[in-house]
Amino acid sequence: MTEYTFKPKGVCARNIQFELDNGRIHNLRFTGGCNGNLKAIGKLLEGQDASTAAAILEGNDCGGRGTSCADQLSIALKEAISAQAN
């Protein structure tokens, strides 16, 4: 399993950490942000395919910011998937 850390931009969360194992998400955690909602996202995505999750979350907006913690997670997942491919 490879652990990834991502610094989101334009949202309340300050940090996103997760592990990928064979393209599956594990141990997703956010630092900052809406604690209950972000814990729920972590539970819902545990063991899920990272590419599918990224596609579902991409473009999710929070309060007209043009992004959200979920959208930032989508970006982080895509970067991690790309890094694993190289």
Task: Characterize this entry briefly.
The protein is α+β, with helices and mostly antiparallel strands. It has helices at residues 35-45, 50-57, 69-85; strands at 2-6, 13-21, 24-32. The protein has a 3-stranded antiparallel sheet with strand order 1-2-3.
Structural overview:
This protein has 86 residues and is an alpha+beta fold. It has a single domain, classed as Enolase-like, domain 1 (2-Layer Sandwich). Helix content is 42%, strand content 27%. The chain contains three helices and three strands. The protein has helices spanning 35-45, 50-57, 69-85, and strands spanning 2-6, 13-21, 24-32. It is globular, with a radius of gyration of 12 Å. The mean pLDDT is 96.
What is the strand and helix layout of this fold?
Elements (H helix, E strand, L loop, with lengths): L1 E5 L6 E9 L2 E9 L2 H11 L4 H8 L11 H17 L1
Antiparallel strand pairs: 1-2, 2-3
Helix pairs in contact: 2-3
Radius of gyration: 12 Å
Rounded mean pLDDT is: 96
Total helical elements? 3
Q: Span between N and C termini?
A: 16 Å
Question: Per CATH, what is the topology?
Answer: Enolase-like, domain 1
